Amino acid sequence: MKKYKILVWLGIMAVLTLFAMGIWYVGWGGSQTTQSLKWLQFLQTAATFLLPPVLCAWMWSENHRPFAWLHMNTGASWQLFVLAVGIMICALPGINLLADLNSRVQLPESLAFIEQILKRQEEAAAVLTERFLQADSIWGLMVNIGLMALLPALAEELSFRGTLQQIVAKSPVLNPQSSTHIAIWITAFVFSAIHLQFYGFVPRMLMGAMFGYLFVWSGSLWIPIVMHFTNNGIAVLAYYVFGDSMAEKNWADTIGAGSTWWLGVLSLLLTSLGLLIFYRRTRKQ
C-alpha cells in the first residue's frame, strides 16, 4: 500500500470529482449563472482537495487518526501564528513584483500559438474570478471569503502540504537527508501548476515552497492554512472595498511592481528576514 499512496490518493480524487460534477449537473443542469458556478466551485474544491486527504489519512494513520497523520492535531504558539501572518502580509508586494516579472516572459516565436492560448485562458479565468468576487452586501462578502479564501486554504493545504508533500518526503527512493527539500519543491511546483496560470507560476511556486518550509519547521499544518487564508482573504476583502474604484483596485493588485518596484524588493528582503526569525524560533522550541 505504501508504494501506491499517490495512485490511491489520485484515484479517490478522480472518483469524488466526477461524483461532484454529476451532482452539480443534476442539481443545476449545467447552468452558467454565477450562483451555479459558485456551487460548482464549492463541490469541486470539496471533492477534489478536501475529502480525499481526510479519507487517505484515515486509511494510512495508526488507529484511524487522520488529523494526527495530517499534523492538524498539533498547533503552535500564538507568537508563531502572528509571525506567520505578518510574513504573509509583508510578502504581498514581493509577490506582485515577481508576478509582474513572470508576466513579461515571452515564449519563442515557434510557440506563439501556445502563448496566445495561455493568455486567453488567464483572461477568461480573470473574468470568472471577477464575477465571483462581486458582492453588494456583507453577506455576499462572507460567502466569498468562505468560498474563495477559507475553503481553498483548508482544502489545498490538506492536499498539497498535508498529503502530497508527506508522501514524497517519505518516498523510499529519495535520500533521507534531502527528501524534505525535494518534497517541498516538488509539491510547490505541482501546487502552482494545478492553478493553470502560467504568468503567475513563479510567485505561486515560491509561495507554495514557503508554506512547505513553515509546515516542516512548525510541525503544524495550521500555520500554512492560516497563511493561505490570509493571502486569499486579503484579495477578497480588497476587491470588496475597492471594487467600485478601478484605480484603487489596480493599486492593491500591483503595489510592489512597476514604479513601486522598490517596495517589492524591500518586501522580499523583509520576508526573508521574517522566515529566518520563524526558523530560529521553531528551532529554539
Q: What does this molecule look like?
A:
It is a single chain. The longest helix is centred in the middle third of the chain and has 32 residues, at 138-169. The protein has two domains: 1-68, no CATH class; 70-284, no CATH class. The chain has helices spanning 5-28, 34-60, 66-69, 78-103, 112-133, 138-169, 179-193, 201-218, 222-242, 246-254, 261-284. Helix 4 packs antiparallel against helix 8 (201-218), helix 4 (78-103) crosses helix 9 (222-242) and helix 8 (201-218) runs parallel beside helix 11. The protein is globular. The two termini are 35 Å apart. The mean pLDDT is 90. With 285 residues, the protein is mainly alpha-helical.
Describe the protein's topology.
Blueprint: H1 5-28, H2 34-60, H3 66-69, H4 78-103, H5 112-133, H6 138-169, H7 179-193, H8 201-218, H9 222-242, H10 246-254, H11 261-284
User: Helix- and strand-based class?
Assistant: mainly alpha
Shape: globular
Helical segment count: 11
Number of domains: 2
Intertermini distance:
35 Å
Count the E strands. Answer: 0
Largest sheet: none
Which residues sit in consecutive blocks of at least 5 with pLDDT less than 50? none
Percent of residues in beta strands: under 5%
* Share of helical residues: over 70%
Query: Mean of the pLDDT scores?
Result: 90
Gyration radius, to the nearest Å? 20 Å
Helix and strand run = HHHHHHHHHHH
